């Protein structure tokens, strides 16, 4: 039985809804000020050079500003950041508030100081795939927070942010 394109899209979304993905927050300094978005598509690509990849579903708004930035931070989030991830995942969410714990790096990027790790990157290649953009990025610096402060990793599963080990 062959699927129609609508059926394929529905089944594709359902397949990945049940596949947990780690959560990252990508931030940059832009001409419009600090920008950021939540991403569940971050993956390591290589060690030499250190590289990662992520995708964005559009090239406008915050995503477009990050894509045009000279550098950006990819924060790998843990369970205590679920609220921040949710705010950055929706248009109009509360972003870069003092209560969230932001600082600005000397290079200009907004840095969530409580993130376990923030990888400072620059885009190596941007590849359009349908309505999305795949971004291959070189890691040029790493900011590590105290391991004692970290909690369980944060994943996105079945349309919700969850801590690893939390009942599904």
Structural write-up:
The protein has about 170 residues and is of the alpha+beta class. It has a single domain (about 20-155), classed as Pnp Oxidase, Chain A. It contains 3 helices and 12 strands; from the N terminus they run H-E-E-E-E-E-H-E-H-E-E-E-E-E-E. It has helices at about 5-15, 60-70, 80-90; strands spanning about 20, 25-30, 35-40, 45, 50-55, 70-75, 100-105, 110, 115-130, 130-145, 155, 160-165. The strands form 3 sheets. Strands 3-2-6-9-10-5-4 form a 7-stranded antiparallel sheet. Strands 1-11-12 form a 3-stranded antiparallel sheet, with helices on one face. Strand 7 (about 100-105) and strand 8 (about 110) form a beta hairpin. The longest helix has 13 residues, at about 5-15.
**Rg value:** 16 Å
The termini sit apart by 32 Å
Biggest sheet features: 7 strands, antiparallel
User: Quick one: CATH class?
Assistant: Mainly Beta
CATH superfamily, by name, is: Electron Transport, Fmn-binding Protein, Chain A
Give unreliable regions as ranges: none
Per the principal axes of the C-alpha atoms, what is the gross shape?
globular
Helix content bin: 10-25%
Sequence of strands across the biggest β-sheet: 3-2-6-9-10-5-4
CATH architecture field = Roll
Structural class: alpha+beta
> What is the N-to-C order of secondary-structure elements (H for helix, E for strand)?
HEEEEEHEHEEEEEE
- Number of spatially distinct domains: 1
Number of strands: 12
Contiguous helical run count: 3
Strand content: 35-45%
Mean pLDDT: 91
Tell me the CATH topology: Pnp Oxidase, Chain A
